[in-house]
Amino acid sequence: MIELPVIAPKAETASTHSKKPSWLRVKLPIGQEYARVRNIVDEYKLHTICQSGNCPNMGECWGAGTATFMILGNVCTRSCTFCAVATGRPNEYDADEPRRVAEAIKLMGVKHAVITSVNRDELKDRGAEVWYQTVVQVKEASPTTTIETLIPDTKGNWDALYRMIEGGQEVVSHNMETVERLYRNVRPQAKYARSLEQTKRTKEFGKRTKSGIMLGLGETQEEVFKAMDDLVENGLDVLTLGQYLQPTKMHHEVIEWVHPDTFAMYKEEGLKRGLQYVESGALVRSSYHAEKHI
Question: To which pathway does this protein belong (predicted)?
Fold first, then answer.
């Protein structure tokens, strides 16, 4: 039996502190390298989760010449209450997108590329063929570039899953996002057990597996520990933990600001429970320091 750790300092309750705590302050995205990356993204008419998801690390990552590309459009068929990406009926996908992504990654000189997508539940293959072609063409254009693919929930379409992950990427990520109890409010069209099974099948396929959980949505420490155990049991290698930030007032409220010491405790606890790598911090997002997760 695993001993419970010493309880870390309690988070600040968000409702009594309207301003973000000091540890969540970030620099505005500036600099020549940031401008160069943005120009390439605009020129090739690409979508990035950095922009669509209002990522707090965009300045740091783009300033280093890296970005997380979002394929299959920028309109999602899901209505997760935490996400800034638009919800609706997507347009027909662009079959030329894999080529444009591959060319942009080559131009940017990216050593490790992260690729993600919206959910495309209306497509029979969930967009799997576009996923496959994107990875293959990036590898052809930039043979030394390593790839992480942050894939959506395939709703149990395992043929689609296997097509998505057989292109040659080194890491396959699928985010749990939150603890089991909060799924109905946070990921209403997803299922906790199904996402766990997707991770398990990905591991059995032979891939390095990764997932992410947001904190500050109302979860308890015991629920986070259980999620860690469930993920380890289903073959997870890498876990990211970060503070949830409310995109707009229409989205799920922030219940608490999790203290940096608590994030440090979760990292230590995750490693004790069998995870190979844990990236844990208030500003951590799925693709933050992704090059270290290979």
Answer: Protein modification; protein lipoylation via endogenous pathway; protein N(6)-(lipoyl)lysine from octanoyl-[acyl-carrier-protein]: step 2/2
